Model the fold of this input.
Amino acid sequence: MRWLILVAPLVAACSTVELTGPAPERDAGHGGPCPSLPTVLCDATAPTENGCIGEPDASDFRRLIPVDARYPLGCRINFPDPAALPRTGECTTKAQCQCVDPTGQSGTGWKCIP
Done:
């Protein structure tokens, strides 16, 4: 009988746990919204490291990359096409930029493929 008394409060405590926080986002295949902001697929690096920053004077997607962070070589940034969902039923990428060093001598920059 003692065990029953000890177990009952534990079961009651477990049954009253409430999950908090935002609901999980749905992906495009399940009717969720397409992203509207660029998706950075890496972490920013130290300002002294070799890498790329945004190019606000560029005439393409590079102008949309933040200038307040440096991204490491190989970093990719996807630019979504939120308007594609109504047309195609899928989220698509309008462009992708990658931080590259074509010279191999700290000549880093963004190579973008529309």
